[in-house]
Specification:
Length: 103
Amino acid sequence: MTRHLISTVATDHRCDRCHAPIIAALDDGIPARVDATPLRDRQAEIAALLDGKWTYVLTLNRHLIHRDASRITANTLTGTIHAEHKCTGPAQLTFDDLMNGAQ
Ligand SMILES: [Zn+2]
């Protein structure tokens, strides 16, 4: 069996809970939800990482790609950098919420 990792085109949403503007997509089959406002510089990305958030590149063809340590170091992907959306809403996010949010 071949495992298909699906990446979808990123679309604009509002978070169901806190109504913040977010961008959602599947990155290699993993739901990604990021704050719509890009991180302005490297320091902002470092702050997000220290805060325990993943960061993503929103590429020119609107895919969200997780910036792991090697991608952050190489920094070859062109696009804006966004931090994972950490909801400050009242309820705990479930996996189903994440899946629905990415569609
Ligand atoms: Zn939220």
